[in-house]
From TrEMBL:
<dbReference type="InterPro" id="IPR013766">
    <property type="entry name" value="Thioredoxin_domain"/>
</dbReference>
<dbReference type="GO" id="GO:0016491">
    <property type="term" value="F:oxidoreductase activity"/>
</dbReference>
<feature type="domain" description="Thioredoxin">
    <location>
        <begin position="39"/>
        <end position="221"/>
    </location>
</feature>
<comment type="similarity">
    <text>Belongs to the thioredoxin family. DsbA subfamily.</text>
</comment>
<protein>
    <recommendedName>
        <fullName>Thioredoxin domain-containing protein</fullName>
    </recommendedName>
</protein>
<dbReference type="InterPro" id="IPR036249">
    <property type="entry name" value="Thioredoxin-like_sf"/>
</dbReference>
<dbReference type="Pfam" id="PF13462">
    <property type="entry name" value="Thioredoxin_4"/>
</dbReference>
<keyword id="KW-0732">Signal</keyword>
<dbReference type="InterPro" id="IPR012336">
    <property type="entry name" value="Thioredoxin-like_fold"/>
</dbReference>
<feature type="transmembrane region" description="Helical">
    <location>
        <begin position="12"/>
        <end position="31"/>
    </location>
</feature>
<keyword id="KW-0472">Membrane</keyword>
<keyword id="KW-0560">Oxidoreductase</keyword>
<keyword id="KW-0812">Transmembrane</keyword>
<keyword id="KW-1015">Disulfide bond</keyword>
<keyword id="KW-0676">Redox-active center</keyword>
<keyword id="KW-1133">Transmembrane helix</keyword>
Length: 222
């Protein structure tokens, strides 16, 4: 009787140990899944934050191209930056070449000198009258201007109403939007201008046109 009892006692302990280990492994897998899900959620939240920083507020920035794009290009640029001056014809050409597939957003990152913010303000004040891209191009083509009167003259050449433009410029109507672009650029740790994001992928400097075309074609086909 004693042997029988000890035999079944041992079997019972073995069963309990097996159940315990099964519960432990189940708990470990459960915790592992929770950790993985948490990491995934954190990664997605970080990516969403980065995407918001890249694109900014939709109504605050000027864009051209497709309203339903396969590829979105966001440029952080400075009208007084010589590399941006060399780069802007490439972006304009891409805008024309891929107008059905690509959306191009321009954001201000005026860091090269003290008057860069005034140039950005001039472009936005012209934009208030529907002349942003024309003024954008004129500022790059006439790089070197610094004063209000010179900026005003370009705006008038672009077709802006002088009184409306001066009112906007003197009141720094869009300074907050420019500062927000600058803040987002700093949060993204932008190394300089031009810096572009192609569907979130960063490229800095005067990127060769042919290389950009390869990148865009690849993104379109994905």
């Amino acid at each position: 009787m004693d042997r029988w009892y000890k035999k079944w006692q041992g079997i019972g302990l073995l069963i309990l140990a097996t159940i315990f280990l099964a519960l432990v492994f189940t708990a470990l897998f459960y915790v592992s899944d929770i950790v993985k899900a948490s990491l995934k959620n954190n990664h997605q939240e970080n990516q969403n934050k980065i995407n918001r920083l890249i694109s900014g507020e939709e109504d605050a920035n000027y864009w051209m191209g497709s309203a339903d794009p396969k590829v979105t290009i966001v440029e952080f640029g400075d009208y007084s930056c010589p590399y941006c001056q060399d780069f802007f014809p490439k972006i304009r050409e891409i805008g024309l070449k891929y107008k059905k597939d690509v959306k191009i957003i321009f954001r201000d990152y005026p860091v090269v000198n003290d008057y860069a913010a005034n140039l950005a303000l001039g472009a936005r004040c012209a934009g208030e009258q529907g002349l942003f891209w024309l003024m954008h191009d004129k500022l790059f083509l006439n790089q070197g201007i610094t004063g209000k009167e010179e900026i005003l003259e370009l705006a008038k050449q672009a077709g802006a109403n002088e009184d409306k433009f001066v009112h906007c410029f003197d009141n720094k109507t869009y300074l907050r939007e420019i500062e927000r672009d600058l803040s987002d650029g700093n949060a993204l740790d932008i190394p300089g201008t031009p810096t572009i994001f192609v569907n979130g992928e960063r490229f800095s400097g005067n990127v060769p046109y042919d290389y950009l075309i390869q990148v865009i074609n690849q993104k379109i086909s994905e």
